[in-house]
Design a protein that fits this description.
By secondary structure, the protein is mainly α. It is about 75% helix and about 0% strand.
Amino acid sequence: MATKSATKTATKAAPKKAKAQKSDDTSIPTEAQLLKMPESDYMNPRQLAFFKQRLQLLEDEILTNADQTTEHLRETQFVPDPADRATIEEEHALELRTRDRERKLLKKVQQSLMRIESGDYGWCEETGEAIGIPRLLARPTATLSLEAQERREMRQKMFGD
């Protein structure tokens, strides 16, 4: 009897282990795992899930920062000293410039999320070549391969665009 119940336990545990391994195959990989994947796996569902999660976290962070700035600016401080008032105004101006840059980044993040949904994410807009995992890790909103970006920057430098 003991061996029969041990066999049942072993057979029950085996499918659970197989399921656990199967769910790991669909889990979101780490940066190191992404970099180890072969080129033939480029922009597979796991890689897309990784970048989608990264972009969504970035989007949430930007929106949270915007909310905090709004609250911070609502807390108007009336300070009689002109020097203190100037300092506060300069801090507000700096914070607003930062949020403006984040607003522009937010637009790129949302465009990248739409590119994931449409199946265009990870591919160069100009050449159709793969942008590459290392470049996307450094700049998840990249729409051009490194070579295409360098050509664009060279043209801008030459023609002042």
